[in-house]
Amino acid sequence: MAKIKFPRKEAEKHFKLTAENVEKISMFGTPAELNDDFLEVEIFPNRPDLISLENFARAFKAFTGKSSGIKNYKINKPEKDFKVKIGSSVKEVRPFTACAIIKGLKFDDEKIKSVIDLQEKLHTTIGRNRKKVAIGIYPLEKIKLPIKYEARTSSDIKFIPLEMSQEINGLEILQRHPTGREYAHLLSDYKKFPVFVDSNNKILSMPPIINSNETGKITQETKDVFIECSGSDLEVLKKTLNIIVVTLSEMNGKIFAMELDYDKPLITPDLTPDKISVSLDNVNKLLGLELKEKDLSNLLPKMEYEYKNGKVSIPAWRSDILHEVDIIEDIAIAYGYESLIPKIHKVATIGEETKKSKIKTKISEILAGLGLIEISSYHLIKAEEAEKNKSSLIELEISKTDYKFLRNSLLIPNLRILSENKDNDYPQRLYEIGPIFSSDKRNKSETGLLETENLIISLTPGNFTEIKQILDYITKALRIKYTIKETAQKEFIDGRAAGILINDKIIGHIGEIHPETLISWNLRMPLAVMEISLEEIYNILSEN
Amino acid sequence: MSKKTEENNIIEKLSPLEIKIIPYLNLGFSEITKKSGLDEVSTLRALKFLETKGILKIRIREKKTIGLGTNGIYYKKTHLPERKLIILLESQNNIPLDEAKKLSKLTENEFKVSLGVLKSKVFIELKEGKITLIASKAELVKKYLEEQLIDSLPLEQDQLKAEQLHALENLKKRKDIVEIKTKQIIDFELTESGKQIAGKEIKSEFLEEVTTDLIKSWAKNKKFRKYDIQAKVPEIYGGKKHFVNQSIEYAKRIWLELGFKEMSGKLTETSFWNFDALFTPQDHPAREMHDTFFLKEVEGRLPEAKIVNKVRQSHESGISGSKGWNYKWKEKEAKKVILRTHTTCLSARTLGSIKPSDLPAKYFAIGKVFRNETLDWNHGFEFYQTEGIVIDENANLCHLLGYLKEFYQKMGFNKIKFRPSFFPYTEPSVEIEVFHPEKKIWVELGGAGIFRPEVTAPLLGKAVPVLAWGQGFDRIITDYYKIKDLREMYSNDLKNLRNKNFWIK
Fold this sequence. Notes:
The structure holds two protein chains of two kinds.
Chain A: E1 2-7, H1 8-12, H2 19-27, E2 32-34, E3 38-43, H3 53-63, E4 75-76, E5 83-86, E6 96-103, H4 109-124, E7 133-139, E8 147-153, E9 158-159, E10 168-169, H5 170-176, H6 178-183, E11 192-197, E12 203-206, E13 210-211, E14 225-231, H7 234-250, E15 254-256, E16 258-260, E17 266-268, E18 274-277, H8 280-287, H9 293-302, E19 306-308, E20 311-314, H10 324-335, H11 355-369, E21 373-374, E22 380-382, H12 383-389, E23 403-406, H13 411-420, E24 428-439, E25 449-460, H14 464-477, E26 483-486, E27 492-502, E28 505-513, H15 515-520, E29 528-533, H16 535-543
Chain B: H1 3-13, H2 16-21, H3 29-36, H4 40-52, E1 56-68, H5 70-77, H6 81-91, E2 95-96, H7 97-104, H8 108-120, E3 124-127, E4 130-133, H9 137-141, H10 145-152, E5 155-156, H11 162-172, E6 178-190, H12 192-197, H13 212-216, H14 243-257, E7 261-262, E8 268-270, H15 271-274, E9 294-299, H16 305-316, H17 331-334, E10 336-339, H18 344-353, E11 361-370, E12 382-391, H19 397-410, E13 416-420, E14 426-436, E15 441-451, H20 453-460, E16 466-472, H21 474-477, H22 494-499
Parallel strand pairs in B: 7-11
Antiparallel strand pairs in B: 1-5, 1-6, 2-4, 3-4, 8-10, 9-10, 11-12, 12-16, 13-14, 14-15, 15-16
Helix pairs in contact in B: 6-7, 6-8, 16-20, 18-20
């Protein structure tokens, strides 16, 4: 998702920024906010074609009925030497490129900035941070056509990259140039790196990293430009190129095609619309409307389509139309979401809660009835808490906070919460029901992990008798029989800790917490705790 | 009111505790306690009762007493660490620091403190790693201020002389040498009406508590002492469910009443069900580590080949009339185990297991989901989501809006609007906004849509319309509970939990 800031002054050249229009922009599928300097719009990942103000304005004018259908952009035939030779060496590293030439541009600072912005936003969205698409734009006056796209070993790549003053080689760019370091991971697995080279054997750029300082920088003097998009998915490259060329055409540039000598020669850019069938029946069925053929002919041009006899022509810069439903959504947008009337769906189905859920609610009621307070803790625990626990825990790959492990008991969050509450009124009688995590040694689960629901009860000040009274009360209330046997349990006092068994299976522990544990958690009141797994109880009660 | 009736009025309301101390009201607090035979807490309570009746005014002063802390008691018996060091240096002057430390048998911290103290008193000099005693013998023999103070404790703080205060400040900086206890000094002044009844022996003919004996031997015409019904009573706390769970129970009831079946599932999930089955391409930014919690050292298993192959097909070349994403789909990526980022994986699993004979069907879930976020007032790494799907050949976008409107109205939002949105797995997609009456702005509450055929065809076997939604639940309830900082949701501050309103809807 990209937030795009269009300078307010520039946007106002295209459409009025009344409150009503700003609301309309949101209803176009691009949530908008207006402030003193900018019109800020959110462009969803399916519409990279709306990232430039020029394209956005054209599409929005169609939406408001000021123009309609697919705007026709003229593509001039390639002139002499408007060619790109593609070496077979790029196949392994970055196999495709789509290119174009634009002539007759008039750049000022504002325009240069907006072109660079477009390039950067396309890199991060449709370009997946330059992995899928990287874009280069070069001043034609500084380079000599035709162009070669080929892969070379590092030592054969020598040029002065942007923002540097001396010539360095390919590897040095990856190691020393700031942009090189940022994107080095995209090339570091390869022996050869891709480059665009002109007929004077000058390197224009090493995609997807950096342009040459000499041949790869547009200025106010630049009139004509060479554009290349390189990457792994030719279809996406073509769409990206189309987005750029129509934007530059809107800036009064003339589009010229280029010949690319793949195994099967290719001419880019190509703005021929794609076609897709749409059935009126499917539209009405999915949207719950009663549209007629002529409604489609009215609505589709508002979203820059053309419609004839069940066929929709799609502008060549749209990359998001995979299926008829994508067209149907645009019909709904053109129709106006605000005009859709919410309806009650008349279908008979019977509601049902899961058994576990019912039992869980019941247990919670029983405990609240005893005057206990329910807490709700994080499923993640901190690294320092994991260390105290000393058993093996499931760890997260990367976490932005101190919470880096999955809890393997409810006791740890409970002790943390008690220690955070040590200055609040006593007695503190707490309970919590929630899942705990461990690795699945028998490897039966789909994730390799076991997730079981536990119940913890803690009383402070509290002793063995009081906590056992509660165990008795709940088990009696649920009509479940348990036995108890002495166990040594870390964190608990020897001789005051016991395992709780149902059907001869240990389901948890009960007892008084050892002062050493209390001290390590900065607690100063006696604490009695029971923690049991509820899974066995769920099984028994579900059977009844 | 005459003075006499005023007095009677007061007497009629006196509790036994108050009656016990009235004869001694002309004395001081400790005398009253002694003579009445009450403990201090009861005496104070009785005085407070009398204060609310306008009989006296209580004044409470604080008195600070300086005593010895645990370390102080130990040092008084042995010596302060710096004195130990002096004694050592007197026999072995001019020795290296680490040797002095070893011989003195002081802890790291004690040794450091001692050096600091002796240096500030100019008793020693440190040069080239050696420590030299430079004070005169006379100076060394004399007990210095801190030692003198320790010897003379306990003392009251307001009686300390300036140099003692200075020594106290120094000692306070060190661990557990001194301990300051604050004691309340209670004293009071009688009001005009107080002066009239103070010292009187009051024989109350009024009845106190209702006891079983009293009921048994009840005779007419007896009168009970009147209570001060306005008096504050001590606060009690009831047991209760966590406030988030209270509202979840309510929301669950809404879905049940609307005919939805509950879905349940695990919080740990394979990427397959969380992303791939939902047509989220494997290079989608949401699948990166800075957005999603991936788990170390585990690899998941994929479901039956029939489903996996169709999901692969829907990504690579498309299914059911779709062009697909046109890339090489990798099993390894789908096997990665994560903490679920949305409850929509439950919907995907349900679609994968449902039989054609079960349709039409409606399902819901309310469960925790996880995002790799920092913790601040507006973000958390876990929160609840409310999820729902409706699977029906005849379901459409207007029905979707109907369900959402119904739910939000029952949750207390009357002004609601829908605008276009985008999710990889729904088309059309909808964003729900509700109007915030206080802030007078529209607030985004979450996403919904109709599952794409690329999602439904592989899981259901054919493309049937599935209305789907999964909105963050926490933000829906913050207004009801007046929560401004999302961290409060799971902070579990007991004061807050005890005083939080119940969910009443």
